[in-house]
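Field notebook, page 142. I keep forgetting to write these up properly, so this time I am using the form the group agreed on. The chain and the ligand, iron/sulfur cluster, are recorded exactly as supplied. Prediction of the bound pose follows.
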Amino acid sequence: MIHINAESCNGCGACVEVCPVGALSIVQGTAVADALLCRACEACLLACPASAISITALPAVMGAYAGLPALRPAPEVVRIEPPPAPEVAHSAALPALVAAVARVGQQWLPRVVEVASQVLQSKASDTKLSTGSRHRRRRGSG
Ligand code: SF4
Ligand code: SF4
């Protein structure tokens, strides 16, 4: 059982806040304990800034409850759902366009490479021919 020194108590209510079984209340500016509810957990002793609470010998009926877990009402669980993900605008035409570009690339790219390679080879042979005729002309004139 606890004892509250009314001379020291300033009525701040800190003990009422921490009592897990609601055994304390403020009456006319002073904390008052309900001996039948008190579990002697000493939470109010630790919370009191005025050291106005002390523990006294437990009555026989309270001894059985001392040290038992505090009886708190089940906390209210507030579930906050995340907001729905923003919808991404999907164009139905986009996948078809990508597939078409890929198909054209597959068909035409090898052909483009082949033509480019032929052009380069023909230019290279033209260059060789023209260089050879220039050499022959120089030799003939000398
Ligand atoms: S000892 Fe525990 S149960 Fe008793 S009044 Fe203080 S806080 Fe409440
Ligand atoms: S915490 Fe201490 S001072 Fe504050 S109301 Fe309770 S007994 Fe009084």
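OBSERVATIONS:
- Strands lie at 2-4, 24-27, 30-33, 53-55.
- Residues 2-63 form a domain with the Alpha-Beta Plaits fold (CATH 3.30.70.20).
FOLLOW-UP: compare against the apo run.
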